[in-house]
Design goal:
The protein has 279 residues and is mostly beta strands. It has no helices and 16 strands. A hairpin with a 5-residue loop joins strand 10 and strand 11. The N and C termini lie close together (10 Å).
Length: 279
Amino acid sequence: YEYNASVNASYRLQWAAQPQTPRTFHLAGEYIHNSGERNNGFNLAGGAMLLRDQVGPLSLTGAYARIASLFAQDPYFGAFSVGFSVGATQYRLLHERIVWETLDDPDIPLDDISTTQPEVGLGFYYFKRLRKGRLRGDNFYAGLSVPQLWAANVEVPSMGNAVPVTRIPHLYLTGGWYHFFNEDSFLEIGLWSKYTKGARPNVHITGRFQPIRRFWVGGGFNPNGLVHLETGLNLPGFISEAGNLKIGYAFDYNISAFDLPFGASHELHISYLIDTKGR
């Protein structure tokens, strides 16, 4: 629908049956600048993101900026993009939330422990809207990204000592296909895979169907036994005739008999998109 600016927020409650369940909050904004007919096949996209992740006494807070180049005469019909993210991440340990086995241990910290490290990420993305053939109007996309470009060796100070914490880079791969029945109705089939050293590849297969502009429903499966369900609403014309409010909810549950009963996961996502150049 040619929106070129958006603000997005999401909140995820993972493994709700656990007392120290992971909780993640994400806030981001992005803008695509199309310089018009004389862009020489080059456009720019920029954005910023805040991330807050809490798992029991451990937390991660990050602030990032990103910029990407889109090589295309008209991004509506497809582009190849290369992007970078630069920011900083704070790692923090809340000492009062830790239950110590030996209360008289002299190495027990008396204050919260925190350290901040720089982060650099790199990503590639390609998408195309077909103009000919039986699949005319359909979209294909594929992306590859590494949010932490190098392994971060973080030393957390504790009672005069340094506790080493190493972050291992993660590799993310995504791809998919949109089949449009008309301007407002489509079927999407997608794949999302993530890999890190020391763990087997993790793959999510998803499908999403939007029968009308204002509503969609979807689901997916992970071979590890995770079932995914989602639904959402679009409210075009919200606040501005050129804007759209998007609200989505997702539910995950592990049905594998060999995994621990961590419980369900819930995620709420809200976006506002707008065409800043008008209709």
